[in-house]
Amino acid sequence: MMAGMTAPRLPRLTRAALGVSVCGWLTVSLAGCSGPSPEPAAPVTPTVTAAAAAPSATSMTSATSATSATSAPSASATPTAVPPFVARVQWVKGSGGRSLHIVPTASGRSAQGAADDDEAWSEVVRLAPDADQPGMRAQFDCHWTFARLVQPDKPSWNIEPWRPVVRESQMVDARCNPGGPESVEG
């Protein structure tokens, strides 16, 4: 990773859980996804060697011209999503029991800020205080992280208090729906 750039933050769910299950969850056959699950890696800390710290003028010019056309935009160039991130919530009767139907806003679908998941969950709890139950935040975080990647235009997300509280890897393996298939409104 280039110095000065940071990896996108995955809310609550760890990058290890992503690595463990994303291959099967996305059902895309990619080279290298069929092997064993990777162990969580330690954070990468960029190091600078003496040679890299004082490059020659020639290497500086070639490095600059080689990277300027391919560099990703800086973090400050990334547009910031603005709350509200949740348009509405509604308790509905689902196939497995009571289900909280969450409709994200356009800004909620594109939000990538470090604290945006916390703000979005706060909005859910303000709109439906009884949503703050064991396992519900983990389901929400899973939808926030993965539903937006896999189905960015999915109209709504459903989270249910009757679902079991599970480890992150199990949550991802279950496509955010541990204990049964996605709830269908009845």
Structure description:
This protein has one domain (8-39, 84-186). Helices cover 35% and strands 11% of the residues. It contains 7 helices and 3 strands, in the order H-H-H-E-E-H-H-H-E-H. Strands 1-2-3 form a 3-stranded antiparallel beta sheet. Strand 1 (86-94) and strand 2 (97-104) form a beta hairpin. Mean pLDDT is 72; it is low at 1-11 and 14-75.
List the helices and strands and how they pair.
Blueprint lengths: L14 H12 L23 H4 L3 H12 L17 E9 L2 E8 L1 H5 L5 H12 L8 H15 L6 E3 L8 H6 L13
Antiparallel strand pairs: 1-2, 2-3
Quick structural gist:
The protein is of the alpha+beta class and 186 residues long.
Keywords:
7 helices; globular; alpha+beta; 186 residues
* Adjacency order of strands in the biggest sheet: 1-2-3
Q: Secondary-structure element order, as H and E?
A: HHHEEHHHEH
Number of strands: 3
Q: Helix/strand/pairing class, anyone?
A: alpha+beta
Strand content: 5-15%
Mean pLDDT: 72
Question: What Rg is obtained from the alpha carbons, in whole angstroms?
Answer: 20 Å
Number of domains: 1
Number of helices: 7
Indicate the overall shape: globular
Low-confidence parts: 1-11, 14-75
Spatial separation of the terminal alpha carbons: 48 Å
Largest sheet: 3 strands, antiparallel
Can you give the helix content as a percent range? 25-40%
